[in-house]
Design brief:
Blueprint (H helix, E strand, L loop, with lengths): L2 H27 L6 H8 L3 H4 L1 H21 L4 H20 L4 H13 L3 H12 L2 H33 L1 H22 L13 H19 L1 H6 L1 H24 L7 H4 L2 H29 L12 H6 L2 H18 L4 H21 L4 H27 L7 H29 L10 H19 L34
Helix pairs in contact: 1-7, 1-8, 1-9, 4-6, 4-7, 4-10, 4-19, 5-6, 5-9, 7-8, 7-19, 8-9, 8-16, 8-18, 10-12, 10-19, 14-17, 14-18, 14-19, 14-20, 16-18, 17-18, 17-20, 19-20
């Protein structure tokens, strides 16, 4: 067998491995969504406390992602990936063992750390695959990292109905162990000559600021019951993020290249991800809650957790289809037009939900339209950012995009909960039907605001540059012992 044939074979194995790992970490992080009621019952805690099993992974993932992105940009990327997956496996083990509720939260927090691996998977694809194949793979990784929730939700709900909450988390342990073994077998070493220095002061400031932002976005009761405390925490987040920005601008090896983030293409892509992520989580929240609302409320379908999870199947399927088609479409139209069109499609999902939700088929159609729009913009996003990003900074640049996405997710979920809570009459358990229409109109307005003027980026057929524009020095060397396919 020739060396070239061997390298082609390795590449064929690498692509499914990268996609599997990205899918697993996304699905495992979403395990909390369908299990909140079961966790409250099993551990004898309130629903608000059980909600933390969903919030904690998002917090830990957002905080860990920039650090993993910087480490993944250096020579220790393989070790970083394996160590992170080992942490996720350990956390998954804690969720299965018969331990108190606090240990479950610790396990869920460590599972959330795995969300930072998505950016590293993109870095591996960009370094070790031919350019065209690497671009398509990166787009697909971005898509599966989002639709993973649609895959994990119904499977988790099924295991919970069959064997209880421990069985559901046992499924998470199994798939994370498979992901670890896959990474051990398939992930190659990073190219030599890169730096993995982490700006500790900037890391701590960013971690503190992000924690406060995401915590406040997810704690609606804090704003309603303890407004003064919420305002103080919000004010405290501002200087922390300012300290982080100043530290990054002064650092030679910043956690996130703040100057690069200001590039019109990168800024536009991050704004699109923020708005699109907010819209996605808002509509997902509305449809799943509506589907599970009992008929006694005067609307809804009274679906069980498992059947409600199946409502997400059109979202995942059409999101995956859009992810496969988008790289080809991007060769025909400019990226800003594609991102704006994706926002229109997501807005169409809101319109369908606002005007037609009298039967379950209409909810399925709205969910499918949402998946089509989300899959499209998430597949286009990496190409827009990486077209102006040096190859060595792939993981770091995409990790910041994930942080923006996490904030958007939290905001979308918070907006949905706030509007529905406002539309719930005193003494009633469920909101009025018109509250769902109001929330959908908010989503339509958000998508329209994105379409009002998306920033321009480089043409869709522009080639990513492999070195920063200011110098050819420090160009990425070819991977040791490997040739381009």
């Amino acid at each position: 067998m020739t060396e070239r044939t061997l390298e082609r074979s390795e590449a064929r194995l690498l692509v499914p491995a990268l996609i599997l790992i990205a899918l697993v970490v996304a699905a495992v992080a979403s395990l909390g969504a369908p299990l909140i009621t079961s966790v409250a019952t099993t551990f004898h805690v309130s629903l608000d406390s059980a909600q933390w099993t969903l919030t904690v992974p998002l917090l830990s993932g957002a905080v860990a992602t920039p650090v993993l992105g910087r480490l993944g940009a250096g020579p220790y990327r393989r070790a970083t990936i394996l160590a992170t997956l080992a942490i996720v496996v350990a956390g998954s083990t804690l969720t299965v063992l018969p331990l108190p509720f606090a240990w479950l939260l610790i396990g869920r927090a460590t599972q959330g750390v795995g969300l930072g691996l998505t950016a590293l998977m993109m870095g591996v694809a960009r370094d070790h695959l031919p350019e065209d194949r690497g671009t398509a793979t990166i787009a697909l990784i971005s898509v599966v990292s989002i639709i993973g929730a649609g895959v994990g939700y119904p499977l988790t709900a099924l295991f919970a109905e069959i064997g209880g909450v421990r069985a559901a988390y046992g499924f998470g342990l199994f798939v994370t162990a498979v992901a670890f073994l896959t990474a051990w077998r398939s992930i190659p070493a990073a190219p030599e000559g890169r730096s993995a220095h982490v700006n500790v002061a900037g890391t701590l400031a960013l971690a503190g600021g992000l924690f406060l932002v995401l915590f406040l976005a997810g704690q609606r009761s804090l704003w309603s019951r303890h407004l003064a405390v919420a305002v103080v925490l919000a004010v405290a987040a501002v200087p922390l993020l300012c300290v982080w920005t100043t530290s990054e601008l002064r650092s030679k090896t910043p956690l996130v290249d703040v100057r690069a983030v200001r590039h019109p293409a990168v800024a536009g892509a991050n704004i699109a991800m923020f708005v699109g992520g907010s819209g996605m989580y808002l509509l997902l929240t509305l449809i799943t809650r509506y589907a599970q609302t009992p008929h006694s409320a005067g609307y809804g379908f009274g679906l069980t957790t498992f059947v409600a999870g199946l409502v997400l199947v059109p979202f995942s399927v059409l999101g995956f289809v859009a992810g496969k088609l988008t790289p080809r479409v991007r060769t025909l139209i400019d990226a800003p037009v594609l991102l704006a069109g994706s926002a229109v499609i997501v807005g169409g999902g809101f319109v369908l939900f606002a005007t037609a939700r009298s039967n379950l088929a209409e909810l399925l159609v709205a969910m499918g339209v949402l998946g089509l729009g989300v899959g499209s913009f998430s597949a286009a996003m990496p190409g827009v950012i990486l077209a102006v990003t040096p190859k060595s900074e792939t993981s770091s640049a995409m990790s910041f995009n994930y942080v923006v996405r996490s904030v958007g997710y939290s905001l979308g979920s918070a907006i949905g909960g706030l509007v529905l809570a406002t539309g719930t009459d005193t003494g009633h358990l469920f909101p009025n039907d018109h509250a769902y229409t109001t929330a959908a109109l908010v989503g339509i307005a958000a998508m329209a605001s994105h379409d009002a003027g998306p920033p321009r980026s480089r043409p869709a057929n522009a080639r990513p540059r492999s070195t920063p524009p200011r110098s050819r020095a420090g160009a990425d060397p070819p991977p040791a012992g490997r040739r381009r396919l």
